[in-house]
Design a protein that fits this description.
Strand order of the largest sheet: 3-4-5-6
Shape: elongated
Number of domains: 2
Number of strands: 6
Structural class: alpha+beta
């Protein structure tokens, strides 16, 4: 799980400009393989009201507002991506994990504007705001092997400040009490 988060964090402006994600070529095959079974007009299943093979219906879930599932240019604020990278009970697809490559493509597609059209103008994420590409909830492992689910806020001295998902409370946690991988994750999140 941490591997997918590190890939999301590592994604850069250069990658977005060099390899623009194309919906029909890159995203649609991922959705068809992993999501159509439960979210498709063709299968007759519209779990939670979502369908991904009817683009007119799917477009209704893409907007820059607080209720949209996909916020163009804002992968970190897109619930669609969050449930693919989190370990929670609402993780999608159920009982499996998308590949790092698939997560990266979906992240790029959302960051570039979540357009269905090839050649559509791409949004760009400013290089000075890498935290915007972070998923809101991440997995942090402490030295005892316990997993902590929280969002990264900032590094503060020798502590990482995490935002708890249940109540949005910020908690300062000693870096030294995190596993080596989670310490690296915190430093990567804080990098400009």
């Amino acid at each position: 799980m941490l591997k997918n988060h590190i890939i999301l964090i590592s994604w850069s402006l250069t990658a977005a400009l060099a390899g623009a994600a194309d919906f029909k070529k890159d995203i649609q095959p991922i959705l068809e393989k992993n999501c159509y079974e439960c979210h498709s007009v063709k299968t007759g299943k519209k779990k939670a009201g979502f369908v991904f093979d009817d683009l007119e219906t799917f477009k209704l879930d893409i907007a820059d507002n607080d209720v949209a599932q996909i916020r163009p240019g804002k992968p970190a604020e897109s619930h669609f991506l969050e449930i693919m990278v989190n370990d929670g009970k609402n993780h999608m697809p159920p009982n499996q994990q998308l590949s790092s490559s698939d997560i990266k493509k979906i992240t790029e597609w959302i960051a570039e504007g979540a357009s269905f059209e090839s050649g559509a103008p791409k949004m760009t994420v400013a290089a000075s705001t890498p935290k915007k590409s972070l998923p809101p909830i991440m997995s942090w492992t402490n030295m005892e092997g316990k997993t902590i689910k929280a969002g990264f806020v900032r590094l503060e001295g020798e502590n990482v400040v995490l935002r708890m998902p249940a109540n949005a409370q910020e908690v300062s946690y000693p870096l030294a009490k995190l596993s080596e991988a989670s310490q690296k994750l915190a430093r990567d999140c804080a990098a400009p």
